[in-house]
Structures
1.
Amino acid sequence: MELVMLGQRAWVLAMAFASSIWGSARGETLTVHDMDDDVDEVVAHEGLIADQIEGAEHEALSAEQIDGNEHEGLFVEQVEGTEHEALSDEQIEEIEQEGSEHQPLSAEEMHGIHKKMDANGDGKVSMAEVLAFSDSARRQILEREVETVLEEMDIDKDRKLSVQELVKDLDSWGGEDVKEDEHEAATMKEVETAKFGAADTNKDGLLDIHELPAMFYPDMHDGVLDLTTGQTLRQKDGDGDGLLSLQEFWRGGVPADAPLDQEGDELLITDDEKEEFQKLDADHSGKLDLQELKAFQSSRLHTEEAMRSLFELADKDKDMHLTAEELGAAREQIAGSEAYYPLVEWAELYDDDL
């Protein structure tokens, strides 16, 4: 089954932060500025399927352009609508339309996923069952992903990660810039060691395959998430008031009163970013506290939004439950919604069972 890049900003942000904010599998450490750039770059590719982004099948680009290195950056600029002779407006529109047309899952796959979600076997699934299934499926997916990481970091090959192995591996994180900055390197070591301690649920001084995902995906463990959320807040909190303004949240470490709409300024806050911030600002104070920031970094908010979209499309009798028939009948509509990407992941995870 072909993986796709969702056009919806909410799910893109969720994935970007859940997988990258504290380092993707292999744990490359990112600065706050890097994280913002990564999210912006992902969002810039809205509507493109993954193989288009990676440079496969770019018929509009000549062989010379592809062979010339930097074709990826050129392609991004062309898709964003800047004036390049290689792509006409019509070609750009065709690419965007192609990327937005996701292949629906089959009715059989939908029925199979429904059976997996139906915890009590009553033939219909509630929102609680869907969210519980989502949590379980994500943990299985991440445990598979970190197996490769463990193989690389596990020096004594005991299938577990020790603090000593973690510290030894830290030298390869973050590149030369981090190594040259002793304070930053020390902070990184302190944070990662603290995360290790929190993730070690049985307190045996080792992380097994079930505990390790929390090191790279903090929302898999409340204690690790608390640590990383606090660190993010301290990094982004430019005025030191323990809260994040709109500008601090999206641009990090800048003065809270920095201009939000200066044309051409790299600190420009977009309308989408403002809307996202408002959703997170539960108490409507105009700033995010630790708990509100934690909700964002946990990705739970975005998962719930995606599943609400699923229910809006499929729950035809509005009883707040989904039958297998309802799910299968709505598969075409779901293919264009925020709910599509997690369903694709689940179908791939349980491919042999569906």
Note: Residues 1-86 have pLDDT under 50 and may be disordered.
2.
Amino acid sequence: MATRAVVSRVDSGHGQAAVAAGSLSRRERGGVRGYRLSIDPSPLTPTLSPAGRGSPAVPRLEAAPISRRLAALVIILASLSATSPAAAAYPERPVTIVVPFAPGGANDIVVREIQQPLAEALGQPIVIENRGGAGGSVGYSYVARARPDGYTLLMAATGFVVNPSLYDKVQYDPLADFEHVTELSTFPVIYTVRPDMGVNTLQEFVGYAKARPGALNYSTPGAGTLPHLATELLKLHTGINMVHIPYAGAAPAAQALLSNTVDVASISITVAKPQLGVGAMKGLAVSGSERWPELPDVPTVGEAGVPAALADTWQGIMAPVGTPKEIIERLAAALTGVMRRPDVRERLLHAGFHATGRGPEAFHRRIVEELPKWKNVIQQARITAQ
């Protein structure tokens, strides 16, 4: 049986005691905040000792007759199964969602679309706070250090798993510092060319590029963005060689294609769709696993013969590690319910997003899978933050 304990922690900054009950497994950075778990030679006497100088003392459970030890164990197990009053009443005040980018970007659009529906589901206002910088790392690290009480959440995106490999150092650990609550939405990249290039499919383009190694260039919304990484992934799996030209956003990246400055644009569907509609661009493939509903004639990379180049951008809600399980479950239920609403799904689709609403386990699997995937692409393509 796994060892479990009730932990009392004193916040030395405020002189207030906070009590948390739960398992001590699932922590990749040893111990409970501020303490080490030690096990007394007597098998039923778990103890907590201070982890360092200045830590408040925690009484040690002394050896006792077997009947007293059994009684103590029963109390501990009962405490673990009970829901804390704070978790049961959650939320009792407004909940803040930190968006780690400036207003107006993809993350901001999605979170503001769900802001009111989520407030209705939770019964409390939702406050949006933008904290941009370093490709999102400023906001990620801010939430990683927030109190794990469910009142400060993170609106994360694909950069969350990319940044640890892209930057020399980031102040957060994607796995150890966060609870992955719910994936909200995804959207693919679309590879576009000008009609006068004379290619109609992705495979025709691959042949065209192979006949001109290093002569073609492509635009993206910036170095290290998903369109950049997705195109490098495509290059790795097709053997083509193109030069990356980063721009400050999807709109100028699209304009570079229209003005004949670049040969290919790897951009969002939202930006490309108007140009596709008037015939100024030709869509070769989308990087997602399904065709985009509003562009039914554009195949996926898998359908175009390069299934290994599957890539899409995601957005999702996370909480600081240590947030009570009951609060995570409450948030996940509310968020997945919001993402199932037909009105929310339709509005997001028209804005260029596919509502997913995947719960904690599926969201966590994505994080675990994408960390090594994008690390490999970054290393092989020698991508650096610019």
Note: The radius of gyration is 25 Å.
3.
Amino acid sequence: MPSRSRRAILASRNAHKARELEELLPGWTIAPLDADGWPPETGATYEENARGKAEFGRAHADGDAWAIGEDSGIEVDALGGRPGVESARYAPEGAPAIAKLLRELDGVPAERRGARYVSELVALSPDGAEVRGSGTLEGRIAGEPRGTEGFGYDPVFVPDGEERTVAELGDAWKAQSSHRARAARALLKALAAAGAAALLLAGCGGNDSEQREVLARFFLHDKEARKLSTLFPHVPGKIACTIPVGGPPPAKPLDGDCATDVTFVKHDRAVVTLTETWQHGGLAHTWFFFIKRSGTIESVVQEGAPAPQAAR
């Protein structure tokens, strides 16, 4: 299990969401917030509501803890996008909300039951800096509830490309593919990219010499990192590379670019970002390795589809 090195409160009483989000954000310990005087969810968008919750959570968080606000909803095409941002107030969560939704869709044919889950995450650092992530899962509403896992509308939501509901697909599927999983990956990417990870703690330090030392330890430490070390530069920067692909002959390697970056997080943590691009930069696959400066990998998040049948 990844080391829980960062603490946050989720501005929600929903323990299901807190537990799910903790699994989606490697290296974080996340607890729901039990407080009174919650602000009304009157925002016109998920982002506005999520930010309002995060600001409320920031006022109740310990000095060294992050505050996370999350707003999510289900948008049904046949209902003009309702319940949308009103999802939390549409009906009591669970069976009552599902029953109301199915009543409203009674007689609506399958081809008009398109829907989507939407999640917006807003995270506020101890000093108030903001980082956001958004995620959407397209699908349709089933005719009746099926499955036992998940929560909310999961028993009646069938994702695109699937025949089973989210509740039938299960929590392991949700951890990789749900709207909240996608929002969490976007949040992690925002933290790691373009220096945003430095927001985790002011004064993280780091110079060229330290970057080289950390990357040298990283590429030596782990089997996966050693495999990638043949492609990626061992110093921050980008090089032309040949990306291997799998499959029988005459499968040919892909010509592309491979880039390495490292961002220091706290005094003893770093994020190593490895990005391979091909088709003239039109396609890309990125690894975000959350590591100790000793080179030990604590967790990894991947963004984008790998090169076709990549042989590693």
Note: The chain has two domains: 6-199, 203-303.
